[in-house]
Automatic annotation (TrEMBL):
Pfam families: Mem_trans. PANTHER family: AUXIN EFFLUX CARRIER FAMILY PROTEIN (PTHR36838), TRANSPORTER AUXIN EFFLUX CARRIER EC FAMILY (PTHR36838:SF3). It comes from Oceanobacillus jeddahense. This is AEC family transporter. It is found in: Membrane. The keyword Cell membrane applies. The chain crosses the membrane at residues 6-22, 34-55, 61-83, 95-116, 128-146, 167-187, 193-214, 226-244, 250-271, 283-304. InterPro entries: Mem_transp_PIN-like (IPR004776). Keywords: Cell membrane, Membrane, Transmembrane, Transmembrane helix, Transport. It is a multi-pass membrane protein.
Length: 305
């Protein structure tokens, strides 16, 4: 337990360091785009390759793909009923942010620190299903409720998945495991060295993107959205946590996975469909802070159970 608390303190320190660099203008928030590209396209795929190398495919691991899909569908349905009477534009903006979560950037550095390679394997499989929700369902919701259009383009849904290097890496390493094929040792050793940078870079990036300002007029919507998102995640997470008590890592994954922060892709959709991108960005930032606190509390709870 002491090691776990120490890892969280280190993680908080690195995040605050990133925020300090932004405030002192050593780094700019715009620099985060470059760091994000390095994380998503280089260090995260390297971590996935190393972690999934020679991984034994089990039913609990595979089931996480479908659990993530079903959770996304259930969360979207709950979000629809919660915001069905809201203004058309607000409805689309709020509902699209409920189902998808941020696994690759937010969860992996913390999971790696707490549960190591086993944790990355489980959350990686969860992220396969989550990617379909983020790039498919959330995009559909954003486009359906957008002002002046109700058209849905399949090409714009499939294209991000086919261009997502982390998602393609998941598919590649899972296929290798199914076919019982292995990558050369030199390739794995190189990927392992690169993967070490994933945790500090991801945490620094979170610090760069932290923003504590928002307009008071947003408060009612922010409060309702957070209640729906975290109420849904905690209720479903604890239900499955007890149901999967015989499979500890599976139970931990759903409990933590369901309360991860909103996907940053929501900001891209907000810009694409002319929602309030500033409000969406603020919501994403708030969920980063709340999710970090909740993960610390729930991971402490898990450690005692």
């Amino acid at each position: 337990m002491e090691g776990f608390q120490q890892q969280f303190i280190i993680s908080v320190f690195i995040i605050l360091l990133g925020y300090f660099f932004k405030r002192t203008k050593i780094l700019k928030e715009s620099d985060g785009q470059t760091i994000a590209r390095i994380v998503f396209n280089i260090t995260l795929p390297a971590l996935v390759i190393v972690t999934f190398n020679q991984m034994e495919m089990t039913l609990p691991l595979v089931s996480l793909i479908f659990i993530a899909l079903l959770f996304g569908l259930a969360a979207a349905l709950i979000g629809y009923f919660a915001f069905r009477s809201a203004d058309h534009n607000i409805k689309g903006m709020a509902i699209m942010m409920v189902p998808g979560v941020n696994v690759g950037l937010f969860a992996f550095p913390l999971v790696e620190a707490i549960w190591g390679r086993e944790g990355i394997q489980h959350f990686g499989m969860f992220d396969v299903g989550n990617a379909v929700i983020v790039f498919g369902l959330c995009y559909f919701i954003a486009s359906y409720f957008a002002k002046g259009t109700s058209k849905f383009y399949w090409r714009e849904t499939i294209s991000p998945l086919l261009r997502s290097i982390p998602f393609l890496t998941y598919m590649f390493v899972v296929a290798l495991n199914v076919l019982d094929l292995h990558l050369p040792e030199l390739f794995i050793d190189t990927a392992e060295i690169i993967s070490v940078a994933n945790m500090p870079l991801s945490l620094l990036l979170l610090g760069l993107y932290l923003n504590f300002s928002f307009e008071k007029s947003w408060f009612p919507l922010l409060s309702k959205y957070l209640a729906v998102k975290y109420g849904t995640g905690l209720a479903l997470g604890f239900t499955l946590f007890w149901l999967f008590s015989d499979y500890p890592m599976l139970a931990n994954t759903v409990l933590i996975g369901f309360i991860l922060p909103s996907s940053t892709t929501a900001v891209v959709y907000a810009i694409r469909y002319r929602y309030d991108a500033k409000m969406v960005g603020t919501l994403v930032n708030i969920t980063i802070i709340l999710s970090f606190i909740l993960i610390w509390v729930l991971a402490s709870f898990v450690a005692y159970h």
